[in-house]
Design goal:
Elements: H1 2-12, E1 18-19, E2 22-23, H2 24-35, H3 46-57, H4 64-84, E3 85-87, H5 104-111, H6 113-118, E4 124-126, H7 128-163, H8 171-175, H9 187-216, H10 240-264, H11 271-291, H12 293-296, H13 304-309, H14 317-326, H15 339-352, H16 373-379, H17 392-395
Parallel strand pairs: 3-4
Antiparallel strand pairs: 1-2
Helix pairs in contact: 2-4, 3-7, 4-7, 4-9, 4-16, 5-16, 7-9, 7-10, 9-11, 14-15
Organism: Escallonia rubra
Protein name: Dilute domain-containing protein
Domain Dilute: 48-368
Amino acid sequence: MEENIDALIKCVTEDLGFSQAKPVAAFTIYKCLIQWKSFEAERTNVFDRLIQMIGSAIENEADNNHMAYWLCNTSTLLLLLQRSLKAAGATPRKPPPPTSLFGRMTQGFRSSPSSANLDTVHQVEAKYPALLFKQQLTAYVEKIYGIIRDNLKKDLSSLLSSCIQAPRKGNALRSSGRSFRGSPPANHWLSIIECLNGLLSILKENFVCSYFRQKYCIYKNEFKADSFSSIEILLFQVPPVLVQKIFTQIFSYINVQLFNSLLLRRECCTFSNGEYVKSGLAELELWCGQAKEEFAGSSWDELKHVRQAVGFLVLSVQQLHRICTLYCDDNYNTRSVAPDVISTMKVLMTEESSDADSNSFLLDDSSSIPFSVDEISNSINEKDFSDVKPAEELLENPAFQFLQE
């Protein structure tokens, strides 16, 4: 058995790609664990070996492409475990309608007639080692997700500080009384769009290349995604709900950074800078429309504070007071908020809170993991894994002939 485990670990450590839109490594691991009855074992070291292998595989945290590959494999394997494992002694019952991210994913297995015939996904009574493995796998899905998200935050951090102030070369426009309305955004905003496009491409790219190499016998270095219609590349590497969650949190981060800069830096609260930020937000709105809801999710809604800051909408009294006291029209060097209005807001703010001078007007960025195992399962409507081909390297080994069954 140890030799077989060694062979499996050695095989899945490599990039095995995809078969029928499914990650080969995850499917191969699952079939081996079922064949070896590892889920039902009271004692086994295969789960520890797999966890160690995954931990070693994701040490290069800076490589988003590599991280996306392992996010796909770990989340898919977790999906299969979620569908297959039941606690020992649990009474079989009809599952309730799924309501969370990883129960809708598994519903596709139950409803598929071919999966019933081919018995690709097995339900087994799991012992403690298997249940512990599932918990550890869940932790790795969350960790890899966080790595990808935080990598993009790091890339955006240096850009966002420049996106809050109009470039100096626009002084001529401001002195002549012209605004930035209709003007294209500067390179800083375009660089943000490039960062978003880069990650979105990574999250979809590996499956697209794998799928079309298989279908059209195209090598990866010759593949051009633009040569195929968007309908043909709807399926992708990482579960869609995770892609949506990543970009939703990234847009929330952009909102926090830009909005807090407005509240903390007086020089940012000018008419010209407002126009500059507005032109950049228009680019983000366009990006959300092009990425479509299946990838962008509700990302655009996360920018509501900075979007509405210009109109002073949907902000607390503390936030309104802060912006009003900082704002000036740099075209004419005037303050356009009347002192009596500011005084009234100060009174209201004092009535609402005894700590009127605190930084309660600032937003907080969230680094929480915004999905559950059930949500991942519920988000994918896969029929079954009956046509997925296991790792070819193991098919030559007599001990792994069961993979062809």
